[in-house]
Design a protein that fits this description.
Low-confidence stretches: 1-21, 165-195
Helix content: under 10%
Largest sheet: 27 strands, parallel
CATH topology: Pectate Lyase C-like
Number of helices: 0
Order of helices and strands: EEEEEEEEEEEEEEEEEEEEEEEEEEEEE
Number of strands: 29
CATH class: Mainly Beta
Distance between the termini: 27 Å
Shape: globular
Number of domains: 1
CATH architecture: 3 Solenoid
Mean pLDDT: 85
Structural class: mainly beta
């Protein structure tokens, strides 16, 4: 049914939400990144003092190979759009690192914006990603693994894996970087199937995570001719998914606002989230426990406009509206 990638307030009929804005609190006591691609190979505080771009089509714009690194982007942009929609380059990458903090910036036009992976068990931990705007990616906003992870107050928007050469090329914002993102599903318009070979799209993907929180993120306008998920966990334990707003997802095959996608998921609390407008030709859920994760608790969430159902197979559930 599903493949694995790698990885509100409601009052009457009025919905109100204020998306996160990038907090450009300037940090100057730092090592400045001045060109791309760049590698951070020593612990410390790093920053950006200008917008930086690259046309690389593989690898990463910034690679972190040290532990205990803080990157404050000072409200500036890390851009990869000039590489085109087929890019396999990622924005910021670290593997088997500890205590990586990334904050206060814009990442645009890569395959995945931030990718903090764990290859060796117990080698990835303590990461914090906050106050970021990640947009116009082709696969995902934030992918990460490890323990003690915090992903909070980020905007993850306009992710689209539809190939521009496909039958519905006009739906892909990457076909024209100069125009606003728009597509059929937003605002309750008629759903139009996407075609092509685009990959799964995920806003936030956590695999093999533990003792972690995903809080206060705004995820919107995700589109794929395959599958779309706002937040997905796999083989993860002791996770709190709280206070996120996820809206306007369209997957040709499947779509879910918050997907707990593995029997290895355990002790997960999904609470006070808002999921709006989830559409697919296959199943489309607001919140879904798929493949039998245990102790999945879904409390006080708002789900509106999920094509199949609001929730599926939560172990414990209370307060889901409407």
């Amino acid at each position: 049914m599903k493949n694995l990638l790698l990885g509100a307030a409601l009052a009457a009929t009025t919905i109100s939400f204020s998306p996160t804005t990038v907090q450009a609190q300037e940090v100057t006591n730092c090592t400045e990144i001045t060109s791309l691609p760049a590698t951070i190979s020593a612990s410390g505080v790093y920053c950006m003092m200008q917008n930086l771009g690259t046309n690389i089509t593989s690898g990463a714009a910034i690679t972190i190979t040290a532990n205990n690194v803080t990157l404050n982007m000072n409200g500036f942009r890390l851009g990869g759009s000039t590489a085109g929609p087929a890019t396999q380059a990622n924005g910021i990458v670290a593997q088997d690192r500890r205590n990586i903090t990334i904050r206060n910036g814009i990442i645009r036009g890569f395959r995945v914006g931030v990718f903090l992976s764990e290859v060796t068990t117990d080698r990835s931990s303590g990461h914090l990603i906050e106050n970021m705007l990640l947009d116009r990616m082709t696969a995902g906003g934030i992918f990460l693994s490890g323990t003690g992870l915090q992903v909070r107050n980020n905007n993850i928007v306009n992710i689209d894996s539809t190939p521009p050469a496909g039958a519905n090329a006009g739906a892909s914002f990457l076909a024209d970087q100069n125009r606003s993102f728009s597509r059929s599903g937003k605002g309750g318009d008629t759903f139009v199937s996407q075609t092509g070979t685009g990959e799964i799209v995920i806003g936030i993907f956590a695999t093999g995570a533990s003792n972690s929180i995903f809080e206060g993120n705004f995820i919107s306008n995700l589109l794929s001719p395959d599958q779309v998920y706002g937040i997905q966990t796999s083989n993860s334990t002791n996770i709190n998914v709280v206070g996120n707003t996820i809206e306007d997802l369209e997957g040709n095959n499947f779509a879910t606002g918050i997907l707990l996608n593995d029997a290895g998921n355990d002790n997960i609390v999904v609470q006070n989230n808002t999921v709006i407008q989830v559409q697919a030709n296959g199943d489309a859920f607001g919140i879904e426990n798929f493949r039998g994760g245990t102790n999945i608790n879904c409390f006080n969430n708002v789900v509106i406009g999920a094509d199949t159902s609001q929730t599926f197979s939560c172990t414990n559930e209370a307060g889901t509206r409407p």
